Structure to design on (228 residues):
C-alpha cells in the first residue's frame, strides 16, 4: 500500500527567506508525485508534478521539487517566498496503471512580513 | 478559476438527513473525482468516475454514493448523515485519458455542516 507523509504540519517563514516543505512517500512500485496548493477558501491547484525523467521539477510561482528515489522523498522548495505564498501545500502520490491518488495531511505555510 | 463548478457552496442539515452535492467538470474532461476534506482525516479520496462508469473507489462509506450522468456532471449523495460527515467536499476533473499521471482540476468545494 502507498502512503505519503508530510513531516511538518506548519512552517512559519519570513518574507524573502527560502523554504523547504518536506514530503516522503512509501511505495513498492514506481510512482507519480504531485504538489498541490490550496489558498484560503479555494480548491487545490497543481504546483508541479514528477512523472519520469529529470528528478528536478520546476513548477509555477517559482517552486521546484526534487525526486529522490533512494530517500523516497519529494521535497518542495522556493528560494524566496512572498506573503502571497501563504497557503496549505499538499503532496500526493499515484501509481501508473491505477486511478487513485493519495494525499498527505498538508503543510500550512505562513509567510511573515 | 479551474473551470470545475460545484453547487451548493454551503449546506447545513440535520443528522439523519440526505443531501446531494453536484459537480460539473471542465469542458472536455471525462473523469470526475470526489474528495472529502476534514480536520481530523485530511483530504480523502472517495470515488472516481470516467465517462459515466465507476473507475476507482477509495474510502467511501456505504451511506455515500455517486454517479456520473451522460452530460458528464456528477452527483455525490450522502445519506443518514452523522455529525462526523461535516466536511468540505471537493470535486475534481481530468481528461481521463492518461490515467494516474493526469493533473486534476479542483472545484471550490461544498462545505457541509451536519447539526
Amino acid at each position: 500500500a502507498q502512503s505519503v507523509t508530510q513531516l511538518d504540519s506548519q512552517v512559519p517563514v519570513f518574507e524573502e527567506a527560502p523554504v523547504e516543505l518536506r514530503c516522503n512517500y512509501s511505495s513498492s512500485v514506481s510512482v507519480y508525485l504531485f504538489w498541490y496548493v490550496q489558498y484560503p477558501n479555494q480548491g487545490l491547484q497543481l504546483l508541479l508534478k514528477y512523472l519520469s525523467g529529470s528528478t528536478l521539477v520546476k513548477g509555477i510561482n517559482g517552486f521546484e521539487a526534487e525526486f529522490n528515489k533512494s530517500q523516497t522523498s519529494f521535497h518542495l522548495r522556493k528560494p524566496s517566498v512572498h506573503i502571497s505564498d501563504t497557503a496549505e501545500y499538499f503532496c500526493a502520490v499515484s501509481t501508473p496503471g491505477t486511478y487513485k491518488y493519495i494525499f498527505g495531511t498538508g503543510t500550512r505555510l505562513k509567510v511573515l512580513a | 478559476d479551474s473551470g470545475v463548478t460545484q453547487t451548493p457552496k454551503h449546506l447545513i442539515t440535520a443528522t439523519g438527513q440526505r443531501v446531494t452535492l453536484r459537480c460539473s467538470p471542465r469542458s472536455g474532461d471525462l473523469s470526475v473525482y470526489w474528495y472529502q476534506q476534514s480536520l481530523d482525516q485530511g483530504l480523502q479520496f472517495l470515488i472516481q468516475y470516467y465517462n459515466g462508469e465507476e473507475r476507482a473507489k477509495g474510502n467511501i462509506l456505504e451511506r455515500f454514493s455517486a454517479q456520473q450522468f451522460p452530460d458528464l456532471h456528477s452527483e455525490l449523495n450522502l445519506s443518514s448523515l452523522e455529525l462526523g460527515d461535516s466536511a468540505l467536499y471537493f470535486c475534481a476533473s481530468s481528461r481521463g485519458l492518461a490515467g494516474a499521471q493526469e493533473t486534476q482540476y479542483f472545484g471550490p468545494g461544498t462545505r457541509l455542516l451536519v447539526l
Summary: The longest strand of chain B covers residues 42-50. Chain B has a mean pLDDT of 93. Chain B is about 0% helix and 50% strand. The interface with chain A takes residues 2, 4, 31, 33, 35, 42-45, 48, 50, 55-56, 58, 90, 92, 99-101, 103-109 of chain B (CB under 8 Å).
